[in-house]
Predict the structure.
Amino acid sequence: MGWPPRFFLKRIFPHCCSVGYSLKIKIREKIFGSSSFGLSKKTRENSQNMTSSPDGDIIIPEHIAIIMDGNGRWAKHRTMPRVAGHRAGVESVRKMVKSCRESGVKVLTLFAFSSENWRRPPQEVSLLMDLFMTVLKSEAKKLSKNNVQLRVIGDVSAFSPKLQDRIKAAIDLTKDSDGLILNVAANYGGRWDIVNATKLIAKKVKNGDLDIDQIDDAMMAEYMSFADLPEPDLFIRTGGDERISNFLLWHLAYTEFYFTDILWPDFGEDELQKAIEEFSKRERRFGQTGEQVRQELC
Ligand code: FPP
């Protein structure tokens, strides 16, 4: 039986089970008081015995997308080289994957390297590539063991053949996992994604396979990255800046944004908990009025 059991959800959230509430959010846990959020495995196991619901709804986003910013500054504060910040950032990635798995998040998308990051000093780019190689080698088996499916979005053809092979091997090793989906955005840009989708559609129109009037936003979405997955519910950017920086421009149209000054290497389970608590308070209306949304819920 999946967690939480369906009868349990039905009792606490009858609307979710009966009317197929379409806000692309799943209520996973309404079990803990606001001071004790159920991210750790132990707490989650304990929660399975609970039959009543204390105050405070926690809504676990199905899909979280993160811009992991602040590695360089984290290192600088410690008079360390920038690459040490990126290495510490990898540790945060591990923690995030674990927390997301344990809390029932279905998809985690991480912005590891943007199409614009090639503009960084060549030495930093090269060190980042080395780090990706190392991480793919050391983590692929662990991901598979933990039932995490790795996917990569972006134009990987720009990477070295060796790195491309490593990426393919890691994707292949985890392709049958049916737990958390970990999307790593590498040489990714939101504009690139839109241009790419446009080109694919334009080709079909040119070949006479598609009429121009058939093109709508649903069709565009089918040609974008991770078309088979729900769009992100929660977007987090660490490091203090409040911008999208050419991340998932198409996919973030109705996503809730959460910005924090915390630098990525310092972003752990507690910080994720804060972001999810904040997300849980938001009313997602998708163009409707608040009244309509509340009416659908009752
Ligand atoms: C931004 O911080 C971070 C990056 C461009 C790289 C992110 C990469 C990792 C965390 C490691 C690899 C991840 C995976 C998924 C394999 P910044 O350097 O811009 O920091 P700053 O703003 O403080 O200079």
Residues 68-73, 86, 89-90, 93, 110, 112, 117, 131-132, 135, 184, 239 surround farnesyl diphosphate (CB under 6 Å).
